[in-house]
Amino acid sequence: MALFSWAKPKLLSVDKNLSADQRIYFISDLHLGDGTRSDCFMGKDNELMRLIEQIQLERAHLVIVGDAIDLHQAWWMSRVIKAHARLMRALSLLANDLGVTYIWGNHDFDISLFRDLLQFDVCSRLTIDDVALVQHGYEYDPFIGPNLEQSHVATRVHHFLERMLDSWIRLPLENFYNIENRMAFWCFHK
Question: Does pLDDT of 181 surpass 60?
């Protein structure tokens, strides 16, 4: 048995159904991190808070299509909560009031974070009547789908490098242009 519950990703097969006669909002791949420079969410808390307020006003349903919290980047849940405390509280309150459906993604090590801590209704696939099927999509990626555990290792190494360099190592290069990213791009290219 692994020391940490997130050490070995677990594949789930839990289906959920929602009715198409309600307003549903979808968001995906937030990758909330620890609030440092390598946090992919890049301080967009206020924008998401406005969306949550709109969802509450409309009494709508929120579906998060995976990868909400990036423990590869943050390392510990306490760091994510500290960096995004208002947002995490708002999401939890929304889940308690109107319900939030959470679809498992490839960065999600431990669904108990979402199910038990945030009170989300967790599933691997969501069907909206006979209108739509919603999945995170990593299952269809030619590398990640069949190699989920190996992709976690590559992601951990990537985030470790970003943290050590205190800089972005991302593509497209023109959006994350800095000397460290340029050198990394050149090394991998050559």
Answer: yes
